[in-house]
Write a structure and sequence with these properties.
single chain; alpha/beta; Rossmann fold; Wheat Germ Agglutinin (Isolectin 2), domain 1; six-stranded parallel beta sheet; 11 strands; binds adenosine-5'-diphosphate; binds the ligand Cc1cn([C@H]2C[C@H](O)[C@@H](COP(=O)(O)O)O2)c(=O)[nH]c1=O
Length: 215
């Protein structure tokens, strides 16, 4: 039975790496995929991992009908054994419905990879629809860690190194505190307290109690 599987997690937890491994293992057995992505950091039409691997992909646009695209490929004589979607959080809910139709009517497995929540801890619309429709939701085995050592469950956005909780939902970027707009993965406790590794280090340096001058 074909499945719609949502591999979800925070940023930087290995989703794209796993997508590339799934593609590699199936390619080695002669299976062919259509790979969709949207707004990968490496550029249009790319699926890239921080481990340095990258593969070509079909860039999803607002107007694209993913079911129609696959029917087009197959009707032109193309072979499709399964479908991979990276950065699935950026897809419209209607496009997730199209992926469910691909599973049910074209009987293809669809493996979707994406982050569930944005920097404000709110679900992305595409991820919400995946949670609603997926046959299975899988957490990545290698968890990303907060600076405190706890499992990272949330994504923080920083602007000029300072954590923010307001702004546009979509800003393509990396886990890079040096960038103007960067991201950092945190546990819920430290996301709630807006405590990034930089602000934790700064508060560790400033004494809680000011020295008393007896002089
Ligand atoms: N230099 C490195 N050596 C080993 N592993 C690395 C290195 N750089 C990144 N990684 C691994 O790659 C993961 C990020 O993979 P990636 O597929 O890009 O994440 P995601 O798609 O979830 O954002 C990190 O969690 C880490 O496990
Ligand atoms: C939290 C958050 C992230 N993004 C962007 C930043 C990256 O371009 C992608 C996530 O990619 P990854 O491969 O999972 O690291 O999403 C965003 O636009 N808005 C956010 O709130």
């Amino acid at each position: 039975m074909s499945e719609l599987v949502f591999f979800s997690g925070t940023m930087d937890c290995g989703k794209s790496t796993l997508a590339l491994q799934i593609i590699h293992n199936r390619t080695a057995r002669g299976l062919q995929s259509v790979i969709f992505t949207r707004d990968d950091r490496a550029g249009q039409g790319k699926l890239s991992s921080r481990l340095g691997l990258v593969t070509e992909a079909v860039e999803v646009t607002d107007a694209m009908d993913l079911y129609g695209h696959l029917v087009g490929v197959i009707s032109r004589g193309g072979r499709v054994d399964y479908v991979v979607v990276d950065e699935a959080q950026f897809l419209a809910p209607e496009q997730i419905d199209q992926l469910a139709r691909v599973v049910d009517e074209l009987t293809l497995d669809v493996y979707a990879f994406g982050i569930t929540t944005d920097f404000r801890t709110r679900l992305f619309p595409g991820s919400r629809r995946l949670i609603e429709l997926a046959d299975r939701i899988e957490a990545l085995q290698v968890e990303a860690l907060c600076w405190c050592g706890a499992r990272a469950t949330h994504n923080a956005r920083t602007i000029d190194g300072v954590m923010v909780v307001e702004g546009a939902q979509v800003v393509v970027g990396d886990v890079d505190r040096a960038a103007e707009v960067g991201y950092e993965v945190l546990c819920r406790r430290h996301h709630r307290r807006r405590m990034t590794s930089a602000s934790a280090a700064a508060s560790a340096l400033s004494p809680d109690v000011l020295p008393v001058n007896h002089g």
